[in-house]
Specification:
Helix content: 10-25%
Radius of gyration: 22 Å
Oligomer: single chain
Number of helices: 6
Number of strands: 19
Largest sheet: 8 strands, antiparallel
Order of helices and strands: HEEEEEEEEEEEEEHHHEEEEEEHH
Distance between the termini: 20 Å
Number of domains: 2
Length: 342
């Protein structure tokens, strides 16, 4: 969607608009040996790496007769349609070859597919549908840290981006949802020390490893971080072992349905569990969450207050995330205001 009348826009409208102007992952880098299908906020995409090494994100539909370009053949600097072989440049989406034409100068001048920005980061390919209102995530706590990433298998989840991020950053559900992965944990949540700066929210919290699957590397300090709309991470800092990371990036297929792209990273030289073992442990946590979160009502945060909710001090982090998301909505509103007055 694109807001056509800012005066009548609901907060849900603004949330959708803000996400159209925000970066989301649409494929894992390790999967680009073949073209990948993706859908971002209802827009059908193809993600591929051409034979020169360029990563491209483009509209999936061929403008000739509507074939699916994700079934096509990748060339040196283009992708070819599987139906009639029309080729579209990975650089800008322009049609560069029509095999049935004897004279290639006769290619219809407007024949093209839309290309979108494509950036590889954290083992994922990221894109944005409209001019971005925020930069792609680049957490300050990872600056100067040499991290080795492993991108996990994406997880389908029939809820919205904000519900997903709140689940990742909520700490009061651990005793009830993560009994296997974390073992027994206290039900009472201590006062949370939360900081917010614009679109970013942080919290430092000690990890008592306990007796769960996480116990292997012992205690450490955790830095929780999230950024509106769709970034959440924990950086585990072990005094004697180094640092490791888990990060989740829910990507909206639609307003109330995400693909959870996620991964783990170890600082090069990390002396604790291997990257593969940390991926296994964190996957247990994610898969414990899924059957609970997929039945949350409503499926996205009720920005327009059409559902009643109550909060307590244990919700301090997620409440600050909501404030950061609302700030992003205000930025989207300002951008729409400017466009409407132009």
């Amino acid at each position: 969607m694109t807001i056509t009348d800012i005066r009548t826009a609901t907060k849900r409208d603004l949330a959708e608009e803000a996400m159209r102007h925000s970066w989301f992952p649409v494929a894992r880098s390790v999967d680009l040996d073949t073209p990948q299908r993706a859908t971002l906020l209802g827009v059908d995409l193809v993600v591929y790496r051409d034979k020169s090494g360029r990563v491209a994100v483009s509209d999936r539909r061929c403008p000739h007769r509507g074939a699916d370009l994700s079934q096509g053949e990748v060339h040196e600097r283009s992708i070819g349609c599987p139906y009639h072989g029309w080729e579209f440049a990975s650089e800008n989406g322009a049609c560069v070859r029509v095999p049935s034409l004897a004279d290639q100068s006769k290619i219809p001048p407007k024949a093209a597919i839309r290309n979108y920005p494509a950036v590889e980061r954290f083992g994922q390919v990221w894109t944005v549908l409209e001019d971005p209102i925020r930069e792609l995530y680049d957490p300050e706590e990872w600056q100067g840290v040499d991290l080795e990433w492993a991108a996990a298998d994406p997880i389908d989840s029939p809820v919205g981006v904000a519900v997903s991020i709140e689940n990742f950053r909520d700490v009061a559900h651990f005793p009830f949802v993560h009994k296997v992965s974390m073992g027994p944990t206290p039900e009472v949540v201590e006062p949370l020390q939360v900081q917010r700066d614009g679109l970013e929210v942080w919290m430092d919290r000690p990890l008592n490893a306990g007796t769960g699957e996480w116990a292997g590397d012992g205690n450490c300090m955790m830095r929780y971080h999230c950024g509106a709309p769709g970034f959440a991470s924990i950086t585990y800092h072990y005094e004697d072992l180094g640092r490791r990371v888990v990060a989740g990036f829910p990507s909206p297929i639609s307003y109330e349905h995400v693909t959870i792209f996620w991964g783990v990273a170890n600082e090069v030289g990390f002396k604790g569990a291997s990257l593969e073992e940390n991926l296994r442990l964190e996957e247990i946590v994610y898969l414990e969450d899924v059957p609970i979160v997929e039945n949350v009502v409503p499926r996205e945060v009720p920005w327009d207050a059409d559902y009643q909710e109550f909060s307590v001090p244990a919700d301090m982090f997620t409440l600050n995330y909501r404030r950061s998301f609302m700030e992003l909505m205000n930025l989207a509103k300002g951008q729409a205001d400017v466009a409407a007055s132009a």
